[in-house]
Amino acid sequence: MPLDIVLHTPGGLVLASLQIAYALREHKGKVTAFVPHYAMSGGTLIALAADEIVMCKHSVLGPVDPQLGQSPAASLLKVIEQKPVKEIDDQTLVLADVGRKAIAQLKDAARELLTRRLPADQAQTLADKLSGGTWTHDYPIRPGEARELGLPISTEMPKEVLELMTLYPQPMRTVEYLPAPRQRQPPA
Asked: Which end of the chain is more exposed for a tag (fewer CB within 10 A), N or C?
């Protein structure tokens, strides 16, 4: 039986994202991930397990590079590459060690999720790019770029998915996502 999942998330814990992704990957039927607005970080990890990722033309995915607190793991590794070890505090050295392990773990996980539909070398290259700090963590991977990277992208978003999004209003932020047109008030 096919399985559809709607992803609208800034991401979250790697553990939870991978548990969901592995469960989706083991599903016997076709898995479709619908991304009406964004599925960043852990949301992208989940999308990598799908057979098809359906996005609106302005939807985005994001890198899956690990973050340690407020620091990207890849940037912590840069610090220890560029400074003499005597000038680096113990906490940064420990974080860099954890960061190296986190990057390796996410590369392996992403590669494993991608090899279901990509050749091994292409899956490895894409896993390296998505997890290794190529971009900032909030870099928007739009549908065309995601397709060029080898992901199975469609931009044929069903209107029912967009209608579903109207049932779950998001808290107001600097920029508000409105899946339906806003009603204009007539001038007084």
From this structure: C
Both 125 and 75 in one domain: the answer is yes
187 lies in some domain: no
Please name the helix (run of DSSP H) or strand (run of DSSP E) that holds residue 166, with its range, or none: helix 159-166
Average pLDDT over residues 155-182: 80
Q: Based on the fold, state whether residues 75 and 106 are members of the same structural domain.
A: yes
Between 187 and 134, residue with greater pLDDT = 134
Give whole-number Cα distances, 142 to 24, 71, 81, 108, 120, in Å.
23, 24, 32, 23, 24
**CB neighbours of 71 closer than 8 A, spacing ≥ 6?**
95, 99
DSSP label of 186? P
Pairing of strands 71-72, 67-68: antiparallel
**How far apart, in whole angstroms, are the C-alpha atoms of residue 41 and residue 36?**
15
Report whether pLDDT(186) > 80: no
Q: What tokens were used for 171?
A: 């808290």
The answer to whether 45 touches 18, Cβ cutoff 8 Å, is yes
Paired residues of 32 in beta bridges = 4, 52
Domain residues for the domain of 110 are 66-135
Look at residue 188 and tell me if it is in a domain: no
List the one residue out of 136, 62, 73, 76 whose CA is nearest residue 102: 73
pLDDT of res. 170 = 72
pLDDT at 181: 65
Task: Tally Cβ neighbours within 10 Å of residue 66.
Answer: 26
